[in-house]
Amino acid sequence: MVRLIVAAAAVTLLGVAPASAATYSAKPATPFSGRFVARDITWNCGPAACEGSTADSRPTVLCQSLAKHAGRIESFIVDGRELASADLAKCNTAAKAMTVSAATAQ
Questions:
Q1: Contact yes or no for 104/77 (Cβ under 8 A)
Q2: pTM score
């Protein structure tokens, strides 16, 4: 009987254990500042980088959502590990296009 109670308590605790959140950091090609929610993450962007944290485990999708707001991403780091170059290239397909006036200003 005691084993049954202990087993039930263990299952209950495992079922409600919070998921650990991953930390994300990205460096947009063009400095971008602001705070916004995209997908399941709140991005806090400053002059050097954008940072956020979420339990969502789809880094490429999160990178794409950031690229839609901030433009091309130079680097994207998940819990200290850099996103693979192929995944970063896929991420940047979602980047907003530079306008003609912005391209000629550079």
A1: no
A2: 0.72
Q: Where are the beta strands (DSSP E) in 1-106?
A: 22-28, 34-38, 41-45, 50-54, 73-78, 81-82
According to the model, what pLDDT value does residue 32 have?
A: 87
Q: State how far the Cα of 28 lies from the Cα of 35, in Å rounded to an integer.
A: 14
Which residues, at least 6 apart from 104, have a Cβ–Cβ distance to it below 8 Å? Answer: none
d(CA 101, CA 106) in angstroms, rounded, equals 9
Tens digit of each residue's pLDDT (9 = 90 or more) over 10-58: 433 344 334 688 999 999 999 889 999 988 899 999 999 999 999 877 9
56 within domain boundaries:
yes
How many structural domains does the chain have? 1
Q: What is the dihedral of CA 95, 101, 103, 104, to 10 degrees?
A: 180
Indicate whether 35 belongs to any domain. Answer: yes
Domain of 87 in residue numbering reads as: 19-96
Q: Is residue 1 part of a domain?
A: no
Whether 3 is covered by a domain: the verdict is: no
